[in-house]
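Notebook p. 47: complex prediction with uridine-5'-diphosphate.
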Amino acid sequence: MDATPFPFGPHALPVLRRRYLARDAEGRVVETPEQMLARVAGAVARGEEPWGGAAAAREMERAFLGLMSQGLFLPNSPTLMNAGRELGQLSACFVIPVEDSLESIFEAVKETALIHKSGGGTGFSFSHLRPAGDVVASTRGVSSGPVSFMRVFDMATEAVKQGGTRRGANMGILAVSHPDIEAFIAAKRRPGVLENFNISVLVNDAFMAAARADGPWQLVNPRDGAVARTVSAAGLLEQMVQAAHQSGEPGLAFYEAINRGNPTPGLGPLEATNPCGEQPLLPHESCNLGSLVLPRFLKDGEVDFPTLEEAAALAVRFLDDVIEINRHPLPQVARASRLTRKIGLGVMGLADLLADLELPYDSPEAAALGREVMARIAAAARAASAELGQRRGSFPAFAASRLAGGWSHMRNATVTTVAPTGTLSLLLGCSSGIEPYFALAYTRRVLEERDLVEFNPRFLARLAALGLDTPEQRRTLAASGNATAIQGLPPELGQVFATAHEIDPEAHLAMQAAFQASTDNGVSKTVNLDAQAGPEQVRRVFTRAHALGLKGVTVFRSGCRGRQVLELLPLP
Ligand code: UDP
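Predicted complex, structure tokens below:
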């Protein structure tokens, strides 16, 4: 076989060896990164066989391998880890239903454990559980309520630890009308509690309007629909603002925006998302994500759109084949996932692309380019799914879906999602998702016992070209993590390399909105605030995100604890 180009970045190997590369019975790593890509391409291309036989599978295997080994695209981590291996579980995202009975709650705990073991992340709506202190007929006792049961999921997650590959991740969601909403909002304010959970409040337009008008808000017991209490809507929103200001949580999920994009309302409303919030799913659905690597599509100083569209179409075929060969961890998941065949193609490396084009992240031009890039990807991806639908059949729930009017066939109920790409971007040495640079020098904590120290290579190259890459400047850069203290740097360059905390929250939201405009599912994005930002800035971000029609919003104030995958640590 031809020598495969090596797409991985300088810090990929330890991560690949620890978690991705195949091992023998004694636990020794028995494949190279190139062999991993060949394993994945070969396994996924088997999904072609029912339609094109072995010949089609061989042809697509070459195409898939080319796409990955040129560093143009990678599927989500479970696909890289498990395709062509015994486990065979390839999806990153799951939503598990939790109904108002002990049986359902502990069945969900069991399902969660099995999914975590296989490398997937789980999200739950706890909105159907009766509140704490409510009656339990069979025992004449009282219920513990959603927050208390979340601890059971948390401890199960801690115990499973995903078989040493990745830690289990959960999203807990509670409706803003639930009587326990205040306890839920405050649940993560203390450190060390629910550490395997991200939490989001599912808010609706009526609540946001009531908060704006300083009106009353009814908390309703889901067991019998009775009003448990009436509170101030603005006061409740304020509790979310204060908690998010302090700890980065809860995030908000916007009910109407999410359900406007529900392709199959006949199968029920969307009430929960995956752990990082970008993928709303119905009970027992799973989703396979994949991401195109934007800076690799630059040609002569411009985005090469025809090549990007071609890659998007091929990536859709890849992700649809993943559904074919996926070994689902539970029969209920297999059933729900095959009914809608959801996939989520997105991007990574936006900040790198913008830096290469010398566009500041917070410029209108950058948002316009983001909008165009995602629109072109989405159009190509939808067309590819429609074509697959024609040849292989539409997803089984298609006829009753909202898509049936616009397209004659569609293989997948959703085709696009912008994932965080936390590990994928590390593997490829590119910036993550659509985030701006978090810092220009940082340690990236990816494995429990190891920190990776990195300078932004693009920034170093620019410094070198200007004769500014000196040990002293590097020390300055390492100490602050940003370009502001670099002596002699042209100001335009400072703007191009502005980091997440230097960028106005409004520009973060503008970029999220630019990508959301043509993304079927959600867009993973954190709105970073600097350490001095007050609660009023969090409030503004929450209300703006709602006004922009986003599906959700997450803030993170520098220095506050919480979901920090990247940590800015001064270097010695
Ligand atoms: N995820 C998870 N555990 C992790 C990281 C991610 O379960 O440690 C799931 C979760 O559903 C998340 C999705 O994978 O929303 C995508 O995350 P990301 O893009 O960061 O994953 P990658 O493919 O880069 O590893």
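Notes: Confidence is low (pLDDT under 50) at residues 562-572. The CA atoms of residues 445 and 451 lie 5 Å apart.
Next step: compare against the earlier run before touching the bench.
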